[in-house]
């Protein structure tokens, strides 16, 4: 077990260097790093191995699209007496006598900002561990843990090109699989640096949600590429949807470069495109509040998996964490973290008790 732990906490690059000599083979074996956002010299091999194992027999995709996850969970919450509130920005975790007792949230009512307080016996934060400790908790409560996590923050974010197609992509031979595209074998050269900003993409991940969702209808594609947040810092203080003509021109240039890269690999692809829209790290930061627009939250580096602050139960009584920061990136790990947090909330042996209930329900279905 100790040996397995040491192996998981070595870097992906170190593991590959120890077991393979051919540089091209090592590059191919490491190519799925875009799925978690850190190059081989930085990522934990345990995370890389988990991602590769996940895809060995094909990834999972919700029947009907990703929105089905929320759509399935929402009525369960409602039946239990809960509610899902949109357009509410949590600005503060209320701490009284050392215990988390609720949250404050900002919303708009008739064009005016209104602050509401929601009190509860337990508070569960899925906003990201650093954001929870650094921004939501009072400084005297969260600053120490925020300082510990600050060293884990990554500059890596992503641009995502969303495409609507004129026709079925199966006409070009696509069947819904994922494609990791690179123009070279050196993953350590930071991907998509100045070249992408000038309209020359060098790597990215291509996926086909519409071919996976089990429904007939308009076809869609997503192509995302890793970039550093600082490449967009000149527009960081400008409001969403109103960052100026130069920003829109930059987005158009980046989009063209990303389409060029796909077209080089799959001639004729550009002719399928009817609609395109690009999101940048600023969009990620705006909607998730993750520092530096970190699309995966805290990075999957070895140091993350030895940080004791990243557990469902926090040092603040009544406050719990959930989400990708607690385990590792991805939808399935995030869902499992939800199970772990639920287990922590219900007490001793909570995790196996929740899993047992799930298995019994599955067996009776």
Verbal overview:
- The chain is of the alpha+beta class and 365 residues long.
- The protein has 13 helices and 10 strands.
- It has helices spanning 2-8, 12-19, 23-29, 45-55, 67-79, 129-136, 139-150, 194-197, 209-212, 245-265, 281-288, 331-346, 350-364; strands spanning 89-96, 99-109, 112-119, 123-125, 156-165, 179-182, 203-207, 220-228, 273-279, 319-321.
- Strand 2 (99-109) and strand 3 form a beta hairpin.
- Helix 6 (129-136) packs antiparallel against helix 7 (139-150) and helix 12 (331-346) packs across helix 13.
- It starts with a helix and ends with a helix.
- The model has no long low-confidence stretch (mean pLDDT 92).
Largest beta sheet, briefly? Answer: 5 strands, antiparallel
The general outline is globular
Tally of helical runs: 13
Q: Quick one: how many beta strands?
A: 10
> Over the alpha carbons, how many angstroms does the gyration radius reach?
22 Å
Low-confidence stretches: none
In which range does the helix fraction lie? 25-40%
Q: Give the amount of beta strand, in percent.
A: 15-25%
Mean pLDDT: 92
Q: What is the first-to-last residue Cα distance?
A: 36 Å
What are the secondary-structure elements, in order, as H or E?
HHHHHEEEEHHEEHEHEHEHEHH
- Class computed from helices, strands and strand pairing: alpha+beta
Spatial sequence of strands, sheet with the most strands: 6-7-8-5-9
Spell out the key features of this protein.
single chain; 365 residues; alpha+beta; 5-stranded antiparallel β-sheet; 13 helices; 10 strands; 19% strand; globular
């Amino acid at each position: 077990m100790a040996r397995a732990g040491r192996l998981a906490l070595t870097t992906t690059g170190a593991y590959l260097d120890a077991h393979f000599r051919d540089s091209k083979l090592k590059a191919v074996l490491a190519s799925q790093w875009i799925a978690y956002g850190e190059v081989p010299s930085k990522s934990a091999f345990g995370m890389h191995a988990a991602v590769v194992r996940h895809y060995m027999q094909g990834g999972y995709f919700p029947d009907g699209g990703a929105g089905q996850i929320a759509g399935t969970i929402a009525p369960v919450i409602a039946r239990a007496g809960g509610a899902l509130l949109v357009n509410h920005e949590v600005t503060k975790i209320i701490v009284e006598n050392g215990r988390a007792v609720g949250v404050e949230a900002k919303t708009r009512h008739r064009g005016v900002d209104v602050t509401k307080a929601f009190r509860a016996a337990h508070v569960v934060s899925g906003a990201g561990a650093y954001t929870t400790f650094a921004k939501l908790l009072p400084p005297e409560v969260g600053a120490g843990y925020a300082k510990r996590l600050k060293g884990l923050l990554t500059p890596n974010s992503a641009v995502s090109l969303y495409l609507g197609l004129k026709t079925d992509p199966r006409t070009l031979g696509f069947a819904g699989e994922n494609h990791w595209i690179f123009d070279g074998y050196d993953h350590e050269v930071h991907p998509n640096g100045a070249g992408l900003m000038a309209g020359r993409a060098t790597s990215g991940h291509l996926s086909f949600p519409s071919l996976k969702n089990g429904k007939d209808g308009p076809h869609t594609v997503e192509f995302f590429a890793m970039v550093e947040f600082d490449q967009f810092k000149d527009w960081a203080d400008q409001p969403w949807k109103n960052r100026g003509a130069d920003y829109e021109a930059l987005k158009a240039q980046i989009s063209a470069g990303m389409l060029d890269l796909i077209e080089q690999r799959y001639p004729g692809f550009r002719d399928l495109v009817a609609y395109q829209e690009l999101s940048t790290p600023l969009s990620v930061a705006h909607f998730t509040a993750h520092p530096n627009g970190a699309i995966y939250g805290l990075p999957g580096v070895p140091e993350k998996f030895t940080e004791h602050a990243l557990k469902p139960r926090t040092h603040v009584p009544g406050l719990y964490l959930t989400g990708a920061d607690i385990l590792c990136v991805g939808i399935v790990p995030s869902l499992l973290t939800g199970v772990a947090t639920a287990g922590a909330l219900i007490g001793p042996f909570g995790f196996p008790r929740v899993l047992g209930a799930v298995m019994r329900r599955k067996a009776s279905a």
